[in-house]
Amino acid sequence: METDIIFLSPRPSLTVEGTGSRSLGRCYSEATYRVTSRQPLDRKTLKALSEAGVLGYGQEFGVMYATAAGGSEPVPETVEWNTRPEPTGWDDVPAVQVVRGTTTPTGAPAIDTYTGLPYGPQRMPFYVYNVVRRVDSSD
To answer: Which residues contact 33 (CB under 8 A, 6 or more apart)?
Structure first.
C-alpha cells in the first residue's frame, strides 16, 4: 500500500455561524454572524455571500475583521497576495500518514523518510469576520 504524508486541517474551509439577533424597536431588527475561513476574504467575497442569502438578509450590511489582538478592523475591498491581513489565529495541524490519493489515515505515525524523525505540526492560519445585518421589517 502506497502512502502520503499530509497535514489535514480539522477546520472547514469556511463556516458561517449565527451569533445572535435582536429587535432594535420600530420594526427594525439586527442579526449577527461569525464567518471563519482558512483563507483571507475580502469585502467583495463577503458581500457575494450576503447577496446569496448565506449571511441573512436586510438593507444594511456591515463586516469587520477580527484581529489576533482581540480588536477589529475594516475588511479590505480586495485581498491580494501582498496585502493579506494578519491571521486571527493559528491551528497547529499534525502530520498524518494516509493511503495515497485519499484522506484515509493509515494509523501509522507520520515519519520523514529522509531523516527518520516524526514530522512536526504545521501552523495553518484562520481568519474571523463579524457580520451585522439590519432590516426594517416594515419595508
So the answer is: 16, 17, 18, 19, 55, 56, 130, 131, 133
CA distance 54 to 33: 10
Which residue from 118, 122, 128, 120 is spatially nearest to 8, judged by alpha carbons?
122
Please name the residues in contact with 18: beta carbons below 8 A apart, sequence gap of 6 or more.
31, 32, 33, 56
CB 53 within 8 A of CB 33: no
**How do the pLDDT tens digits run along the chain, 139 residues long?**
899 999 988 899 999 999 988 887 778 888 999 999 999 999 999 999 999 989 988 888 899 999 999 999 999 888 888 878 899 999 999 999 999 999 899 999 999 989 999 999 999 999 999 999 988 876 5
Report the C-alpha gap between 47 and 29 in whole angstroms: 19
Domain boundaries, the chain: 3-136
To which residue does cell 501552523 refer?
Answer: 123
Residue 104 CA to residue 109 CA, distance in Å, equals 13
Please state the pTM of the whole predicted model. 0.86
